[in-house]
Design brief:
This protein is α/β, with parallel strands linked by helices. It has helices spanning about 15-20, 35-45, 65-75, 90-100, 115-145, 155-165, 185-195, 210-220, 235-240, 255-270, 295-300, 305-310, 325-345, 350-360, 365-380, 390, 405-425, 430-435, 440-450; strands at about 5-10, 30-35, 50-55, 80-85, 105-110, 145, 150, 175, 200-205, 245-250, 270, 280, 285-290, 315, 350, 385. The strands form five sheets. It has a five-stranded parallel β-sheet with strand order 2-1-3-4-5, with helices on both faces. α4 (about 90-100) links the parallel β4 (about 80-85) and β5 (about 105-110). α2 runs parallel beside α3 (about 65-75), α6 packs across α7 (about 185-195) and α10 (about 255-270) crosses α12 (about 305-310). It is elongated and about 90 Å long. The relative contact order is 0.08.
């Protein structure tokens, strides 16, 4: 099968130049169009990596308005396209405006076929490099996924994921302990998906977000006429998750009277709806989470000890984002890729000052804060790269206290710097060594010494 030639779209309304350009590039699969509508249709149908665009198109052949309209539409449809703009009208001003609108390069008429050919080949070469980088970044993201959804390269989070995988196919109750925004619901869903209950429902409820007088009905359901407004019989969340998993977020906010009823369900695996008299057997697995200190609440009489031990057969402590060096960069890149597709396709990556700002911030709001800041930055970014200013991070970074032990402090610093560099370079050893200012053999020695993985 013959090798497929790369696609080159030429947007030119002059019939003589069309014929000249068609035969000038035998190495390319050339598509030629002469107006705005045909150009946009060809971009959608052919998805050419490189386009040469004459700014003087009908119905404005002596101006540039139609050409710039085509350029803007191409950038909106497929912003990674390399558009090479040609014009004989106010060359310098048009060149500056074209680059500002996203063009790759510019040349002035009259045409020099050899010069244009050089620019076109260079554009194809750059496109191929960027495409390979995107492919590598995508595969790197897959390698850094645990439990199918969570992105991490931190050993601390990998250990959490492995623990959840080991208990997934048992029926033990799991309690996730961690600060707000660390990904407790994502881990709970990962546990459900890795279990033999994956085909059942995954139901999540935030116990802190529901008023006390409504929480019992939300969990256990109610019969018709059980109270004012109960116009029909309604299943509760426990019953809805029968055969699946119920995730109780902020379980520490469940009031004491309701804790008794929840304990009875965990002991007997039956429920009674509010206003009901029938015991309903339910096969629902409970996974719960909280950022509160339940042991302190037990000592203060605000949480039942017997319920705690029923819910906490397996306790998993989730590290904060600040305790996972390198993960902030990995996550920021993943969030940027998603939000750019959805909201601003012109954005292609993070500028060096943005990467430094992400590495330096302690992320008190954890992954949720990072996600929100990247989302805002993608919306606000003016260029192809998100800058530090777009992230709107407060000045300065908080210091983390370390023990007064030089060897320990040095090792901790080495580990963090290596993991930050690995995340920035997406695991590429040569790039990581260059970022750290050391040789590859030295980096390999350090990776082995600190049991890190490149």
């Amino acid at each position: 099968m013959p090798e497929q030639k790369p696609k080159l779209l030429i947007v030119e309304d002059d019939a003589g130049l069309q014929a000249q350009l068609k035969w000038a590039y035998p190495d390319f699969d050339v598509v030629i169009v002469g107006d705005r509508a045909s150009a946009i249709a060809a971009v959608r149908a052919e998805e050419p990596p490189v386009v040469t665009l004459d700014l003087g198109l009908p119905p404005d052949p002596d101006g540039t308005s139609e050409g710039f309209a085509v350029l803007d539409e191409i950038m909106a449809i497929k912003p990674d396209t390399k558009v090479i703009v040609a014009s004989g009208h106010g060359a310098r001003e048009s060149a500056l405006q074209a680059i500002a609108h996203g063009a790759y390069d510019f040349y002035q008429k009259p045409l020099d076929i050899d010069a244009i050919g050089l620019i076109v080949r260079r554009a194809f070469h750059l496109y191929e490099i960027e495409e390979e980088n995107r492919r590598l970044a995508s595969s790197a993201g897959d390698e850094n996924r645990v439990l199918g959804r969570m992105i991490t390269a931190a050993p601390e989070m990998v250990r959490v994921a492995r623990t959840i995988e080991r208990v997934a196919n048992t029926n033990v109750s799991v309690m996730l302990l961690g600060a707000s925004g660390t990904g407790k619901e994502l881990l709970a869903r990962g546990l459900h998906d890795a279990s033999d209950r994956a085909k059942g429902a995954f139901i999540a409820i935030n116990c802190a977000a529901i008023p006390e007088n409504l929480l019992e009905s939300e969990l256990f359901g109610h019969e018709k006429g059980a109270f004012t407004g109960a116009v029909k019989t309604t299943e509760g969340k426990i019953e809805m998750a029968d055969g699946g998993t119920l995730f109780l977020d902020e379980v520490g906010d469940i009031p004491l009277p309701l804790q008794v009823k929840l304990l009875r369900f965990l002991q007997e695996r039956v429920i009674e709806r509010i206003g009901g008299r029938t015991a309903i057997p339910v096969n629902t697995r409970i996974v719960c989470a909280t950022h509160q200190n339940l042991e302190a609440m037990i000592a203060e009489g605000r949480f039942r000890e017997d319920l705690y031990y029923r819910l906490a057969e397996i306790v998993v402590r989730i590290p904060s984002l600040a305790e996972r060096p390198g993960d902030a960069t990995l996550l920021a890149k993943a969030f940027l890729s998603r939000f750019a597709r959805e909201m601003n396709p012109m954005v292609k990556g993070l500028a060096p000052d943005a990467l430094a700002a992400i590495d330096g911030w302690q992320w008190p709001g954890n992954v949720r804060e990072l996600e929100n800041r990247v989302k805002r930055a993608v919306i606000m970014a003016d260029g192809k790269l998100v800058a530090a200013a777009d992230l709107d991070l407060p000045g300065g970074t908080s210091e983390v206290s370390n023990p007064l032990n030089l060897k320990s402090a040095r090792e901790n610093t080495d580990r963090k710097m290596i993991r930050h560099a690995l995340a920035r370079s997406e695991g590429n050893i040569s790039s990581t060594a260059k970022l750290l200012g050391i040789s590859r053999p030295t980096l390999y020695d350090l990776l082995k010494q600190y049991d890190l993985h490149g």
